[in-house]
Amino acid sequence: MTGTNDRVLITEVLLRDGLQIEPVVVPTADKIRLAYGLMAAGLTSLEVGSFVHPEKVPQMADTDRLVRELRPAESVALHTLVFNERGARRAIEAEARHVRFVVSASDGHSKANAGVPTQEALARLRPAAELLTGAGVRIEATIATAFVCPFDGETAPERVVDVARALTAYGIKALHLADTIGAASPWHIRRTVTAVRAAFPEPPLGLHLHNTYGMASANAWEALQLGVRRFDASLGGVGGCPFAPGAAGNIGTDDLVNLCHQAGFATGIDPGRLVAVRDEVGALLGRRLDSALSAVPAEPVAVRGTAAAP
Q1: Average pLDDT along the chain, 310 residues, taken 10 residues at a time
Q2: Which residue in the list 241, 248, 251, 260 is annotated as catalytic?
Q3: How many CA atoms lie within 13 A of 58 on its CB side?
Q4: Is 260 among the residues known to form the active site?
Q5: How far apart are CA 234 and CA 10, in angstroms?
Q6: Is residue 177 within 8 Å of 160, Cβ to Cβ?
Q7: Residue 179, SS3 per DSSP
Q8: What is the pLDDT of residue 240?
Q9: How crowded is residue 116: how many other Cβ atoms within 10 Å of its Cβ?
């Protein structure tokens, strides 16, 4: 179906989206060890934290320190989330080089997640974008509830396009669409991805998928058929949004890597090394993880020998 030069970029979001909903606050030293383990497995893009108030998301209180201590890994993009000008200033002070704006397509989720409706959330990102651009920081963006909202129901593609239009005006370098509560189907993926691609052939488009109803792999497959080559994933399927009722974990990095490799897509990621890091995550959280492959004692069999080549 594909050649080994058809490469998929996976951003590992365990350290942010994965841990933000866990009752256990993982120590910074353990996060750093996990980060280097993920890098050793071949991941070149990590989401490591969020510049939000520590009382709102205490699991992200050490984002500044993480960015500073991991920054020597220059070959790896370390992404952090920014929601406003204050977050942008913190990112610059921490010498972050990659940030992501997050804006909800639906007002209901925007009020729960950011405290204001969508248009206000977009407006307060304008000065943040100016600060970050002036500091030479690369900006990407994620549109949350791009398919379904827990408060407002299905999200119209036209609304997603409108939010994307505002974000592209801020000079973003990549755009990601998030199935925040994991309620999307392949039909939703095709409808909205097609609409956004038609309106904005650039910047590159990615997906952030959750697996609440077991559809994440089907949605990833649909996106691959549409030419999407960027995905967020969390090792072991850990994660969820504390401001979206019913949201379960992310698509598992281990599951997504297996899907890509079986279909002949290259990721540069070593499944065997992922197993060791996944076992450590399970021990830190004190539970069995949620990905399908977490129940398998070893890496999947019959993976194409050339598909994972860097």
Answers
A1: 71 94 90 96 96 86 94 83 95 96 96 92 96 98 96 97 97 96 96 97 95 95 97 92 68 96 96 94 92 82 48
A2: 241
A3: 7
A4: no
A5: 10
A6: yes
A7: strand
A8: 73
A9: 17
Q: Whose CA is closest to 38, among 293, 292, 268, 304? A: 268
Domains, the chain, ordered by start:
9-252 (3.20.20.70)
Half-sphere exposure of 63 (CA within 13 A, CB side): 33
Contact at 8 Å (CB) between 10 and 229? Answer: no
Is this model's pTM higher than 0.90 or not?
A: yes
Cβ atoms of 47 and 100 closer than 8 Å:
yes
Q: Which two tokens mark 108?
A: 């209901």
Do 245 and 226 contact (CB within 8 A), yes or no? no
Cis? peptide before 203, omega within 30° of 0: yes
Instruction: Name the helix (H) or strand (E) containing 232.
Output: strand 230-233
Decide: 224 and 265 in contact? Cβ < 8 Å.
Answer: yes
Handedness of CA 108, 112, 115, 119 (dihedral sign): negative
Return the closest-CA partner of residue 65 out of 82, 86, 48, 88. 48
Task: Tell me the C-alpha distance between 285 and 268, whole Å.
Answer: 27
